[in-house]
Design a protein that fits this description.
Blueprint lengths: L10 H12 L10 H7 L7 E2 L2 E2 L9 E7 L14 H4 L14 E3 L6 E10 L2 E8 L1 H7 L3 E7 L5 H10 L9 H9 L7 E3 L21 E2 L22 H17 L1 H5 L4 H19 L2 H4 L23 H7 L7 H14 L5 E4 L6 E2 L7 E3 L11 H24 L2 E3 L4 E2 L4 E7 L2 E2 L14 E2 L1 E7 L7 E3 L1 E3 L4 E5 L6 E2 L7 H11 L19
Parallel strand pairs: 3-10, 3-15, 7-19, 8-9, 8-10
Antiparallel strand pairs: 1-2, 4-5, 5-6, 7-18, 11-12, 13-14, 15-18, 16-17, 20-21, 21-22
Length: 518
């Protein structure tokens, strides 16, 4: 395997190394020694666009982005305001009766409890309690207050993952894929919607950094093999013979000769000729498949397929994985990280209605997700926060139970950060003492992050109870700055990358040391 005159390994050469290793690999953990050493040369690890590629030494870090679609209000969860704290303003602000805002011992966080409240015209009662989640995870939780720059859904979604183009327009996911993903089959898998699913605007990145968009998490793994799953398909050696003939004919065709130097065609050939066999050798069609073998309805074995070894456990944790997209996404996200397929995954609810297999609680996702607040703010926010916290809680439990490095005792969770990327906040006003009311979009809000790598049990910034508006902080020291209301999207962006150990030298990003556990 050669190094070109740039000193870098090309994507084609990396995929060749992966395909050579894959045949003898029993797991999707660190690459076998020979391939790892070949990719671990000083030349291959040179700087690319200001970021040093992480050595393929089995020490990646992982990012899960949860898109809080529609505008998750931080004052309806971890920074809720009690009516007694707002004085005469309480009845006209989005404050809660004191008994509904629960404190957490030794923590700056709060937890909201909502009981027996209808969600607009949906005939389903909302009963949520955030306290168990906050108590369980407070030591790995950080809330950073923010003022955004857009209340347009798609624009705000994208800015929440680019820091408003803070680093040449790269997304957080692309930065993590560049730092840690060079040796992973599909480093960046994106199951989000709208702006969350868009790639950044830095065209200089290697193509593997950009997100692989997945529209249906439960069925997507079935497309990771070109012949498995086809009944009575020819043997693999016959399929490979046909592929070789196809590749030869394509390269000798008028089209192939005319456009052989075109970047798009070269990328297509790399993916088809080297990338596809490498994926197939890893048996991802089965390892990532949550679907059960259920003849005659779903006879996997009849088609030469099987369910993932983790299938039973994931179907128990996420029983509505087929009807609730977020549950299906969470199950696939765990498998992608566990089997070292990806270093970053993006999940989150859409604006579409989703249902449960439960007669009493039949709605899993209301219309417009968090933006149902236009119809019924308080119940909609409570329901959606419970939805986000529920899936995050299950993912954390799964990652805690999954070994990362048995020699050091690290779990997958020890090296993972979850970023709940809201679009914007909600307006703070309400009619006098109203329990059911509507809200609009507001730039003022805060972001929730969870990771053992973060400075846990921490609120960066604060909230003024007389206005229910958050204020800023110094990203380097963490010192609160009451009255600071200027946008700080680059600070949030830098904080996530700093906690994940991404090399941001040369990026111009602000020092975000306040986010990191010391």
């Amino acid at each position: 395997m050669s190094l070109r005159n740039t000193g870098r390994l090309s994507r084609r050469e990396m995929l060749k190394a992966l395909s050579l290793c894959a045949a003898g690999s029993a797991t999707l953990g660190p690459l076998l020694t020979g391939c790892r050493d070949a990719l671990n040369t000083p030349e291959a690890l040179e700087r690319f666009g200001g970021v040093r590629r992480a050595r393929l030494d089995g020490k990646p870090r992982f990012l899960i982005v949860v898109g809080a679609t529609g505008g998750a209000s931080i004052v309806d969860s971890l920074l809720a305001v009690r009516a007694s704290e707002s004085g005469a303003n309480a009845s006209k602000l989005n404050t809660f009766p004191d008994e509904q805002v629960q404190g957490v011992d030794g923590s700056p966080f709060r937890a909201v409890k909502v009981s027996n409240q209808l969600m607009g015209n949906i005939p389903q009662l909302v009963n949520t309690d955030q306290l168990p989640f906050v108590r369980k995870h407070k030591d790995s939780m950080l809330v950073a207050t923010t003022v955004g720059t857009s209340v347009n859904h798609a624009i705000a979604q994208k800015r929440s993952i680019t820091g408003n183009a803070a680093w040449n327009g790269r997304t957080l996911q692309e930065c993590v894929a560049l730092q840690y993903g060079a040796g992973f089959p599909i480093p960046n898998v994106n199951m989000g919607m709208g702006g969350y699913s868009e790639r950044g605007t830095d065209g200089s990145l290697p193509s593997y950094c950009y997100g692989e968009v997945v529209s249906n998490a439960s069925f997507w793994p079935l497309g990771l093999d070109g012949s498995k799953g086809i009944k009575d398909a020819p043997p693999r050696d016959v399929v490979e013979m046909a592929r070789r003939a196809r590749n030869t004919l394509d390269s000798q065709s008028v089209f192939g000769r005319t456009f052989e130097d075109a970047a798009a065609l070269q990328r297509w050939n790399e993916q088809r000729i080297e990338g596809q066999p490498a994926l197939e050798a890893k048996d991802l069609i089965n390892r990532l498949n949550v679907l059960p073998n259920q003849p005659p309805k779903m006879p996997l074995t009849e088609y030469g397929l099987s369910s993932s070894p983790d299938g039973d456990r994931l179907r128990t944790l996420f029983p509505d994985y087929l009807t609730d997209p977020v549950q299906g996404q969470a199950a696939l996200a765990f498998l992608l990280l566990k089997y070292r397929v990806s270093v970053t995954v993006t999940i989150g609810p859409s604006f579409n209605v989703a249902v449960r297999n439960n007669e009493e609680e039949f709605i899993a996702n209301p219309p417009l997700a968090f933006d149902f607040s236009h119809t019924d703010h308080r119940a909609g926010q409570a329901f959606m926060w419970s939805r986000v916290m529920g899936v995050v809680d299950k993912l954390i439990d799964l990652l805690k139970a999954e070994p990362f490095d048995e020699a050091t005792g690290e779990s997958m969770w020890d090296r993972t950060l979850i970023y709940v990327a809201t679009e914007f906040g909600r307006t703070r006003s309400r009619p006098n003492d109203a329990i059911a009311f509507s809200s609009g979009h507001d730039l003022n809000n805060g972001f929730l992050m969870l990771s053992p790598m973060l400075k846990g049990n921490t609120v960066l910034g604060g909230i003024d109870p007389l206005t229910a508006l958050t204020y800023g902080f110094d990203p380097r020291t963490g010192a609160p700055q009451p009255g600071k209301m200027t946008t700080n999207e680059p600070d949030i962006f830098s904080g996530v990358l700093t906690a994940l150990g991404v090399d941001t030298s040369g990026s111009g990003l602000p020092d975000a040391s306040a986010f990191v556990r010391t």
